[in-house]
Design a protein that fits this description.
The chain is mostly beta strands. Helix content is 0%, strand content 51%. The protein contains no helices and 11 strands.
Length: 124
């Protein structure tokens, strides 16, 4: 089994920054692609960013492109989401996910493991 634990969420003013971390444990390896998704109350779960197993390829949803950066440190079994220039519409519960495949995916149903999530709230 693979266990994912997110951290780094909190309350921040618009224009501020946060860095989310996702620590993986259990049956983990560098062959897993990783992704970040978010969900606000009453809204659909939304793809945010993804990174390939090797870290050489990334993908972002248009609304965060240029503001968010996904990265990974396979030696630490950790993936990060650096969020800059935060907006109130970024407020959501953020989830880390792992996919037992090499390439990244923007589809939530293609990910096998999910963390509990961490709350991000951006005030205006």
């Amino acid at each position: 089994q693979v266990q994912l634990v997110e951290s780094g969420g909190g309350l921040v003013q618009a224009g501020g920054s946060l860095r989310l971390s996702c620590a993986a444990s259990g049956r983990t390896s560098s062959s897993y692609a990783m992704g970040w998704f978010r969900q606000a109350p009453g809204k659909e779960r939304e793809f945010v960013a993804a990174i390939s197993a090797s870290g050489d390829s990334t993908a972002y949803t248009d609304s965060v492109k240029g503001r968010f950066t996904i990265s990974r440190d396979n030696a630490k079994n950790t993936v990060y989401l650096q969020m800059n220039s935060l907006k109130p519409e970024d407020t959501a519960h953020y989830y880390c996910a792992a996919r037992r495949w090499l390439n990244a995916s923007t589809k939530n149903y293609e990910y096998s493991y999910w963390g509990q999530g961490t709350q991000v709230t951006v005030s205006s």
